[in-house]
Amino acid sequence: MKKIKTVIVEDSRLARNEIKELLKQHPELELVGEAENVDDGFELINKTKPELLLLDINMPEKDGFELLEMLDEVPITVFTTAFDEYAIKSFEYNALDYLLKPINEKRFSQAIEKVKEKVTISGEETAIKTEQLTESSQIFIKDGEKCWLVKIGDIILFEIVGNYSRVFFQDQRPMLYKSLNQVEEKLPEKSFFRVNRQQIINMNHIKNVVPWFNGKLKLTMNNGEEVEVSRRQSYIFKDRMSL
């Protein structure tokens, strides 16, 4: 049985020890590291590539939300904190669960059951994670006071806004403070396509394709957005779509 690689990021040594005691009741979880601050947690996560992150929210200097903002890909996240005022905010981030300290053993077990539902556990060797994102990868987006954990496969398109990118998913259009070129380097090539200098689309969210002027194509996406494919990219697009 494949174990679920787990990381704890928590500034209190006592709290880390309490969580480690709870983890002993769940042999399907493998603790691969712990960190007492955001910067160390960031290095640890990038090094170990865990499936599960047990994350304190209220830490000195940088908080747990800032850690998520630093990551290119976010593991399944369960927040742990002594402050219930963060509960609503944490669910805006689409965290899998939220545990209030001191953590009850039964409540912890319920959270782990949710984790197991999201992680495929098998005896077979899984593919080693690379720097490339997949359809099921999560990214963190913070725009003003609103925050999201968004699955890559749910994103409809990315669009340049100055030096940054706007992200379209569901009925949301938040800003992602990375350039479109930075975004493109990480996206799965099978699903995403650079239609012009300004936009990248998820080909799984195309609703309609029509011929446009000068050999170009116009796409209508599932959210109603219309996107014009440049003439050069239209030839490549037709070849990929076997049109």
UniProtKB/TrEMBL annotation:
PANTHER family: STAGE 0 SPORULATION PROTEIN A HOMOLOG (PTHR37299:SF1), TRANSCRIPTIONAL REGULATOR-RELATED (PTHR37299). The keyword Phosphoprotein applies. Pfam families: LytTR (PF04397), Response_reg (PF00072). This is Two component transcriptional regulator, LytTR family. It comes from Cellulophaga tyrosinoxydans. PROSITE patterns: HTH_LYTTR, RESPONSE_REGULATORY. Residues 5-116 form the Response regulatory domain. InterPro entries: CheY-like_superfamily, LytR-like, LytTR_DNA-bd_dom, Sig_transdc_resp-reg_receiver. Keywords: Phosphoprotein. Residues 139-243 form the HTH LytTR-type domain. GO terms for molecular function: DNA binding; phosphorelay response regulator activity. The modification 4-aspartylphosphate is found at D56.
